[in-house]
Design brief:
The complex is a heterodimer of chains A (404) and B (430). By secondary structure, chain A is mainly alpha-helical. Chain A has 12 helices and 7 strands. Chain A has a domain of 178 residues: MetI-like (MetI-like fold, Orthogonal Bundle), CATH 1.10.3720. Among the domains of chain B are: 47 residues, no CATH class; 213 residues, MetI-like (MetI-like fold), CATH 1.10.3720.10. Classes of the chains: A mainly alpha (404), B mainly alpha (430).
C-alpha cells in the first residue's frame, strides 16, 4: 500500500523574499522600481527647483508665436511671420527630403560598389576597397564640411558666367554650378499635367500587373512571355503619348543669368548638396560592405546547383542568389537608412535648415525653451526610428526561413 | 637490374622531358593581366575607366602635395611663394599644429598629454594582446588615475584617494564575494564610498602634493580632446553596456523593460540631440548650484549613447550562445552571478568583440560632433579659430585633409586590429 503525500505546504515567510529564488526576483524588481522612481523624482524636483530659480516654466505656447526668422529652402509656404510650429514643419520636411535623396543615392552607390568589390577585375575591386575604407574611417562631419567647401569655395560665382567670354559656362545651357548652389531647370505644371502624371503612375502599376500575369502564365502553362522589352514599352509609351496628345502640358523653365544672379529654374543650395552627397557617399560605403557580405554569405553550392539545373547566369542571379542574399542584406540596409536619417541632423553644421536647424537651432536660441524644443526634437527622431524598425520587424518575419 | 640489354635498343631516354613552358599569353604578368584586367570587353572598359579615374585623381593630388608650401606666415605669403603652381598651403599645419593637436593647452605643458598618450599604449597592450605579460594589467588599472593627473593637473592626492576608494572597495568585494555576489558587490561599493568620504577630509587638510599646474577643461582641445572622449567613453560604456544587455535578457519584466526603453530611446535619437541635452538641458536636471564641467556632461551623454549600442552588440553575443551553456551552468548549481561571470559572459564577450570594436570606431568618429556644441576638438579648431583667423581664412583642403588623415589612421588601425583579432579567435575555435 502506498501513501501519496503532498510535500508539506510551506507558509510564506518574510525571509523568503531574499532567500527563495521564487520570490527573490519580486524583491529585486520592487527595489529597482523604487530606485527608478526616486531617481526620476530627484531629476524632476531638481528641474522644478532650477526652473523656479530662473523664473521659467514648461510650456509649449512658444510654438504658436511668430518665428521671425527666414528659411532658405521652403518645401511649403513659409515666411518669417509664421509660427515656430510651421518653421518646425518646414524643418521636418527638409529632413525628410535630404534623408530620402540620401537613401536612394546611398543605395545605388552602395550596391554598385559592393558588387564591383567582388568583381574579378583586380583594379576595380581594389579601387572600390579604397573607396569603402576611405569613407568608412573618416567622420561624416568632415566629409560634409569638405563637400560644403567644394560647393561654396571652389565653384565660380554667378559673375563668372557673365560677359562676352565668360570663364564658366552652363552645362547643356540648363545647369549652372555656382557657389550659391546648383541651378537646374524647373518643371512647370500646366493644366492637364495631372493627367500625364496619373498616366505615368498607372503605367507603373500596369508593369507590375503584366509581370504578375506573365508569371502566372508561366506557372500554369509553362509558356514564357518576354518581360523586359514590354515593361520598357509600358513604362514610356503611354506617358509620352498622353504628353503629346494633351499638347505638352509640362514644360521646363531654364535658369537664366539676369543681372548679378541666376533667375528662374530651380536652385539647389550648396548646403543641401553637401549634406546629400556626403551622407550618401558615407552611408554608401557601409551599404557596400553589407551588400558584399550578403552576396558572400550565399554558398557557392547554390550557384553550382542552379547551374547544374541548366539556368543561365542572369537567371541564377535573379532567381537563386539575389532572393537569398536580400534576406541577409535588407535588415542592415534598413538600419543604414536609419543611421543616415539620424546623421542628417548634422545639417546644422552647414546651415541646412532641417528640424535640428529650425526647432533645435534658431527656435531654441530665440525662445530659450531648451527642454521643450529638445524633447520635441527627440520625439520626432524617435518616431521615425521606431516606425521604421517596426516595419523592418514585419519584413523580417515575412522573409524568415520557414523551418519545419 | 633490367634484363634488357641497353645496347639492343636504338634510343632510350633516361630522364623525362621537362614540361614545356606554358604559352607566353598564359604565364606571368601577361596571364595575370589577361585574367584580372581584360578578361571580357566589359571588363576591359572598366579597367580603362578605373585607370582614367586614378590618373585624374593623382593628377590633382600629386602636384598639390609636391608643390606644397610648408613655411609661411599666412595664406597670402603662401600664395606669393607658390606663384600659381597649384600646390597646397601646408604651412598652416606647421604654423598651427599645436592648436590642431592640443587645443589651448598651455604650451610649456605639452609633455604631459604626450606622456599620457604614450602610456596609453602601455596600458592598452595587455588588454589588446594576449601575449603581453598579465602583470601589466596592474598598470592598466592605475592608468586612468595617472592620465587624469597628467592631463588635468592638480594635486596627485586626488587621483590617489580615488584609487584608494576603488582598492578598498575591491578588497571588501573579494573578502565577501565567497558568501554571495550581491553581498560582495554592495559591500565593495559601501567600502569605496566610505573611503572616499574619509579621504575627502584628508584631501582638504593636506595641501598640494606633487601638484602639476591645473589646466581648465575648456583649454583641452584639438585631436587630444577627440582621443580623450573616445577612450574614456568607450571604456566607461563597456561595463554599462554589459549591465544593460544582461538586463534586457533578464526574466524580470520590470528590469527588462527599463533596459529596453533606455536602449531603444538612446538608439532612436541622433547623438547630436544628446549633445544638445548635455549642453543646455542637463544642467536643469542636476541639483541647483552644482556646476558640472561641459566635458564631464558630454562624457556622460556619449557614454550613455555608446552603452546602448554596445548593449545591443553584447545581446547578440548572448543570443548566439547555445542554450546548452545556460543549462550546463544551471546544472552545475551555479547561481546567476556565478553563471554569468564564469560561463556565459566570457564566451558572449568573445563573440561580440568585432561588434564592440565597430561601435568603438563609430564612437571615436562621432566625437567630432562636439564641435557643434562649441567645444574645440580637431574639427572645432579647424572651423573656429583657424579658418576664422585672418591669416588662414581660405585654407580648406589642407586642414580638412589633415583632420581626415588623422582620423583615418586611427580608425583604420583599430579596424585592422579587429580583423586580426577575429582571425586569432577563429583559429582557436577550430
Amino acid at each position: 500500500m502506498t501513501v501519496m503525500t503532498d510535500p508539506p505546504r510551506e507558509s510564506f515567510r518574510l525571509s523568503m523574499l531574499l532567500n527563495d529564488t521564487r520570490y527573490r526576483s519580486y524583491t529585486f524588481q520592487f527595489i529597482a522600481l523604487i530606485a527608478l522612481f526616486l531617481f526620476i523624482g530627484w531629476l524632476i524636483s531638481n528641474a522644478a527647483q532650477n526652473l523656479e530659480d530662473l523664473g521659467q516654466d514648461i510650456s509649449y505656447g512658444f510654438l504658436g508665436e511668430s518665428a521671425g526668422y527666414d528659411i532658405n529652402q521652403r518645401p511649403i509656404e513659409y515666411n518669417s511671420q509664421d509660427s515656430h510650429l510651421r518653421a518646425s514643419i518646414v524643418g521636418v520636411l527638409n529632413t525628410l527630403i535630404v534623408a530620402f535623396l540620401g537613401c536612394i543615392t546611398a543605395t545605388v552607390l552602395g550596391v554598385v560598389a559592393g558588387v564591383l568589390r567582388l568583381s574579378n577585375n583586380w583594379i576595380v575591386a581594389k579601387l572600390m576597397a579604397v573607396y569603402v575604407e576611405a569613407f568608412r574611417n573618416v567622420p561624416v562631419l568632415i566629409w560634409i564640411l569638405i563637400i560644403f567647401s567644394i560647393m561654396t569655395v571652389s565653384l565660380p560665382g554667378p559673375r563668372a558666367f557673365r560677359g562676352e567670354d565668360p570663364s564658366s559656362s552652363m552645362l547643356f545651357d540648363a545647369f549652372a554650378f555656382t557657389n550659391r548652389g546648383v541651378y537646374a531647370p524647373k518643371p512647370i505644371w500646366e493644366s492637364g499635367s495631372m493627367i500625364v502624371v496619373i498616366t505615368f503612375l498607372l503605367s507603373i502599376l500596369a508593369i507590375f500587373a503584366y509581370r504578375a500575369y506573365a508569371k502566372k502564365l508561366l506557372y500554369d502553362t509553362g509558356r514564357l512571355l518576354p518581360t523586359f522589352w514590354p515593361s520598357i514599352a509600358i513604362f514610356f509609351v503611354p506617358t509620352i503619348l498622353m504628353f503629346f496628345i494633351l499638347g505638352r502640358p509640362i514644360s521646363l523653365e531654364y535658369p537664366e543669368l539676369r543681372g548679378f544672379n541666376f533667375q528662374g529654374g530651380m536652385q539647389i543650395r550648396g548646403s543641401l548638396i553637401a549634406l546629400w552627397f556626403a551622407l550618401a557617399i558615407y552611408t554608401g560605403a557601409f551599404i557596400a560592405e553589407n551588400v558584399r557580405a550578403g552576396i558572400m554569405a550565399i554558398s557557392k553550392g547554390q550557384t553550382e546547383a542552379a547551374a547544374s539545373l541548366g539556368l543561365r547566369p542572369n537567371r541564377i542571379m535573379n532567381l537563386v542568389i539575389l532572393p537569398q542574399a536580400l534576406r541577409v542584406i535588407i535588415p542592415p540596409l534598413i538600419s543604414q537608412y536609419l543611421n543616415l536619417t539620424k546623421n542628417s541632423s548634422l545639417a546644422i553644421a552647414v546651415g541646412y535648415m532641417d528640424i535640428t536647424g529650425t526647432l533645435g537651432g534658431i527656435t531654441l536660441n530665440q525662445t530659450g525653451r531648451a527642454i521643450e524644443a529638445i524633447l520635441l526634437l527627440m520625439l520626432f527622431y524617435l518616431t521615425i526610428s521606431l516606425s521604421i524598425s517596426a516595419i523592418m520587424n514585419v519584413y523580417n518575419n515575412s522573409v524568415k526561413l520557414k523551418e519545419r | 637490374m633490367s634484363d634488357t640489354p641497353a645496347h639492343s635498343v636504338a634510343f632510350v631516354r633516361e630522364t623525362p622531358i621537362p614540361p614545356a613552358d606554358p604559352p607566353a599569353t598564359e604565364r606571368g604578368v601577361i596571364k595575370w593581366v589577361r585574367e584580372n584586367l581584360v578578361s571580357t570587353p566589359a571588363n576591359a572598359v572598366m579597367t580603362v575607366l578605373s585607370l582614367v579615374a586614378i590618373y585624374w585623381f593623382l593628377a590633382l593630388l600629386v602636384p598639390w602635395l609636391l608643390n606644397g608650401v610648408w613655411n609661411a606666415g599666412s595664406i597670402r605669403e603662401c600664395r606669393e611663394i607658390m606663384a600659381g603652381s597649384g600646390g597646397g598651403c601646408f604651412a598652416v599645419l606647421t604654423e598651427r599644429w599645436h592648436q590642431l593637436i592640443f587645443g589651448r593647452y598651455p604650451t610649456d605643458q605639452y609633455w604631459r598629454p604626450t606622456v599620457a598618450f604614450v602610456l596609453l599604449f602601455v596600458a592598452l597592450a595587455p588588454v589588446l594582446f594576449q601575449t603581453v605579460p598579465r602583470r601589466l594589467l596592474i598598470f592598466t588599472g592605475l592608468y586612468p588615475f595617472l592620465a587624469y593627473w597628467l592631463v588635468w593637473g592638480g594635486s596627485i592626492l586626488g587621483p590617489i584617494f580615488a584609487l584608494a576608494g576603488f582598492a578598498v572597495g575591491y578588497i571588501a568585494y573579494s573578502r565577501l564575494v565567497d558568501r554571495s555576489f550581491a553581498m560582495g558587490f554592495f559591500g565593495g561599493v559601501l567600502a569605496a564610498i566610505v573611503t572616499w568620504w574619509i579621504t575627502g577630509f584628508l584631501a582638504d587638510a593636506t595641501g598640494n602634493v606633487m601638484a602639476l599646474e591645473t589646466v581648465e577643461s575648456r583649454d583641452i582641445g584639438g585631436f587630444m580632446l577627440n582621443l580623450i572622449l573616445g577612450t574614456v567613453c568607450v571604456s566607461l560604456s563597456l561595463p554599462l553596456g554589459i549591465v544593460l544587455a544582461l538586463g534586457r535578457q533578464s526574466s524580470m519584466p520590470i528590469i527588462k523593460w527599463i533596459c529596453v526603453v533606455f536602449i531603444e530611446f538612446i538608439r532612436g535619437v541622433p547623438l547630436i540631440t544628446l549633445l544638445f541635452v548635455a549642453n543646455v538641458v542637463l544642467a536643469y536636471f542636476l541639483p541647483p548650484g552644482s556646476n558640472f564641467d561641459l566635458i564631464l556632461r558630454v562624457i556622460i551623454m556619449i557614454t550613455m549613447f555608446a552603452a546602448a549600442y554596445i548593449a545591443e552588440v553584447i545581446r547578440g553575443g548572448l543570443a548566439a550562445l547555445p542554450r546548452g551553456q545556460y543549462e550546463a551552468a544551471d546544472s552545475l548549481g551555479l547561481d546567476y552571478a556565478q553563471a554569468m561571470r564564469l560561463i556565459i559572459l566570457p564566451q558572449a564577450l568573445k563573440i561580440s568583440i568585432p561588434g564592440i570594436v565597430n561601435v568603438a570606431v563609430g564612437l571615436f568618429k562621432d566625437t567630432t560632433l562636439v564641435s557643434i556644441i562649441a567645444m574645440f576638438d580637431l574639427v572645432g579648431m579647424v572651423r573656429g579659430p583657424i579658418l576664422a583667423s585672418t591669416d588662414w581664412n581660405g585654407v580648406y583642403w589642407e586642414l580638412f585633409g589633415f583632420a581626415a588623415f588623422l582620423f583615418f589612421v586611427v580608425c583604420y588601425g583599430i579596424s585592422q586590429y579587429s580583423q586580426w583579432l577575429e582571425r586569432q579567435l577563429q583559429t582557436d575555435r577550430r
